[in-house]
Amino acid sequence: MSDNRFLRSATHSLAFAAITAAGLALATPAHADPLWPGGPDIPGVAPLIPSPPAPVVAPCTANGARGCMRLSTNEAWLMDNGKVVYGPTVISHGRPGYETNVGVFDVDFKREDHWSTLHNVPMKWAVFFDGDIATHIGPTEEQSHGCIRMTPEGAETFYNYLWPGDIIEVVR
Predict the structure, then answer these.
(1) Residues 47-60, buried b or exposed e (16+ Cβ, 10 A)?
(2) In angstroms, rounded to a whole number, what is the distance separating the alpha carbons of residues 77 and 82?
C-alpha cells in the first residue's frame, strides 16, 4: 500500500511540475519598444520623456508679420520668421460702429504711458499701428472704440517686442 501511495504522490508531483513548466514557458513578457534607444521595456508604463507639444500656429500670412491678431476669436500672437514666439493672448477689439480694420499695418510708434485725448483714458503699453488705433491694456471683456485691448501681460509683451516699422496683420 505504501508503494501505491508513493507512486500516486510521485505522479502528482510530476504532473504539477510539468504544468508549472508549461505555464512558465507560455508566460514570456510582452514585447514593447524601448522608451528610448537602449532603454527599458516596460509595457503599460508611460514614456519618461513626453512627446513635445504640437506647435502653436497663428492665422496670419503676411510675410514678415511680427504681430498677428484674429478678431473672430479675440486672440493675438507674436511671430518671428513665421513661428509663434508668444501667444495666443486674449484681446478685444472695436465695437459696432468702431470696428477695428483688417489688413497689414506697420507699427508707427509706441508709448509706454499714453493718454487718449479723444476718449480721456490711459493707454498703458500703447503700440500704434493704424493711425490712432493701438494695442494697449484694457478690459478684454468689453469691446473698444477700435483699439486692441489686451491683458497687462499681453500688452507689455507686445510693447517690448514690437518696434516702429514692424508688421502687424489683423485678420477676421
Answers:
(1) eeeeeeeeeeebeb
(2) 11
